[in-house]
């Protein structure tokens, strides 16, 4: 049985790699042009699951996906923390000394700056996508150039690894979320994500967090996003340890719901392992 | 006497417009290529002040500038909340019915989608910058096209307003911060910005916010950013009402400093008015 899993980007993208780390060989990759398409496909049942990046350990949150989690009624049912390891990829037969041009997404190029600085007589060319740069050197049969992308892109486009692990920072992880139209409450090592808006009174956020602190529930992340049409007011996205199926957490959420002007449950899912 | 004020972007940018709203005619505009250049120029005393966007009321925080506030030792000494009003600008002699091409930054084009949808036989062309699109139609003497940019761009490049206020959302504000190498503590209507990192123990954020809640200090914004090299740990940027010169606030900050692993004072400045 295969599971259709939607992600944004070209085949070979880091999102696809994170998907394989989570689903294994059961995954059938469904690449889509935009993040919003991923949410739509999950919502409409055109795929079994979606996978989206939510946060990078160097660059922070991917806000568009926070906003889409509020907009679409889908549930978070899993998490993957993928080590972002960059590879210099080329067509077979190309040696490192042949390389005169290196193509990749500007962020990937920046993440490999230390490696790139050591090269002589090489032109750095920004393109729209990491996996897209691998696709391009393959399709155009480029023999004097290389691409910087993830391992999955090398596998998918049949490219040779000229050099592995060329990123500056080893502690570069992207956290991905697995989305489903059905609520699935994880039992193992659970964490829970919610959205809430406090009443507009002094101390409201402190009071809201007290709901968790008094029960010794450990907060993992808080993220604020603007409320459209109400400048300088914010909604909060909260991740904490525990499951809605546990009484202590469900009590906390009931109390928060009473305090809040807006509340949305996003999911209870197993905390992601670090992979890749 | 003129004040040199650095900002990122082309002449006529929204940052420049916000600068004039704050400094008036005393301002002498210093356009620079990047946000980091603005911080460097302020730090090195090559300009009197810098102005940077920190947050938009529809799209949220500009994270790069949050990170630069931590990296550079400069102080926040003022704030402006600029209403983002988009204008359709063209060379003199061009009528709305002549326009076949409209140029602007993709975000500005998205913000004017409702207006653009009503036009017939017009090609929408994304360019790198709003003020840059105004500059281009002026320099290239384009007579069948128009640019979408702010009022300041129209003034600077001597363009005619074909249509004013073409943005979808009227409650679209960008909040700008004024930077100085010297600490200047505002007396009128003060707010204060700090950065802190809590100890890595459950309830640490709640305890930190309690420092303010117990003193009835009103929090205005909390923003979390990743700590480089420590995946899934965060630093917090906090804005609150009050001045470091007031005993109640300085007591709170002293207590927070004792609780925290890292603490940085960014500034006490007058709350910005909404302008433009």
UniProtKB/TrEMBL annotation, chains A, B:
Transmembrane segments: none
Reactions it catalyzes: prephenate + H(+) = 3-phenylpyruvate + CO2 + H2O; chorismate = prephenate
InterPro entries referenced in this protein's UniProt entry, alphabetically: ACT-like_dom_sf, ACT_dom, Preph_deHydtase, Preph_deHydtase_CS
SUPFAM superfamilies in the record: ACT-like, Periplasmic binding protein-like II
EC number per UniProt: 4.2.1.51, 5.4.99.5
Gene3D superfamilies the record matches: 3.30.70.260, Periplasmic binding protein-like II
Keywords from the UniProt entry: Amino-acid biosynthesis, Aromatic amino acid biosynthesis, Lyase, Phenylalanine biosynthesis
Top-rank taxon: Bacteria
Function per UniProt: Catalyzes the Claisen rearrangement of chorismate to prephenate and the decarboxylation/dehydration of prephenate to phenylpyruvate.
UniProt name for this protein: Bifunctional chorismate mutase/prephenate dehydratase
Lineage start: Bacteria, Pseudomonadati, Candidatus Kryptoniota, Candidatus Chryseopegocella
